[in-house]
Amino acid sequence: MAPITEVEGRRVALSNLEKVLYPATGFTKAELLHYYATTAQVLLPHLRDRAVSFLRYPDGPDGQVFFAKNVPPGTPDWVTTAEVPRSEGPARMVLVQDLASLMWAANLVTEFHTHQWTADDPGEADRLVFDLDPGPPATVVQCCEVALWLRERLAADGVEAYAKTSGAKGLHLLAGVRGAPSEQVSDYAKALAVEAERELPKLVVHRMTRSLRPGKVFVDWSQNAARKTTAAPYTVRARAVPAVSTPVTWDEVAGCRRAEQFVFRAGDVGPRVQDYGDLLAPLLERRRAAALP
Predict the structure, then answer these.
(1) What's the CA gap between 183 and 221, in Å, rounded?
(2) Helices (H), 230-265
(3) What is the pTM of this model?
């Protein structure tokens, strides 16, 4: 029987704590759960009130990896859920609102992915996102060059951008927006991606076509679609090592010269939070969200 832990008055079963999830580093499930427990203060605000998709990898990234969007079987009745719209009809998804829910979900061994809208208002996006994905031999170093251009371009429209590593090989740009449906945000993001390709033709591509991407940065604007989700800040990724989607400063973006500089593992995040706090905290301030032009 899995040991039962009490978390904020809730009984949470935590199983297979000795299991090694990341063989390359020996990182165990117990270490994964400890990571989420100790970063909850910065992670939870970015999950709260958002329908969460789980990218599950219960036997580690080398095992089966699969998305779970609906409420999983066996979900405790104290976990908050919400009905959300989908093209095929309404569905019920999990909201990770508190530490107990976070630890229950983390025990499933999952990446956390969220939409760019909150469950109480799925008709209005409150986030704009660019996923900068390098086509080899390009790396995150080239993503940083593109990110700096996009930051300035967004600022010209009064939109303040923030950066985080994807936890894989690229970079995410996020901005708070208001008063716009997802379709309008997608159109705006696409227009900027096209503009970036026009201004930086040797560096940027805005189309997903694989043959166009070697040596360039794909500026993926499509994740602004209402149906799509993006890896949440501070989530551990199902990669060879326990890399985390980690907020970074713009000075770090400007100073990135080697891809290794932007690989942050679970053990790196706590000290960064102590030094910087939550670099994405401004996204949580509604007053700082921008109206799109």
Answers:
(1) 11
(2) 250-254
(3) 0.96
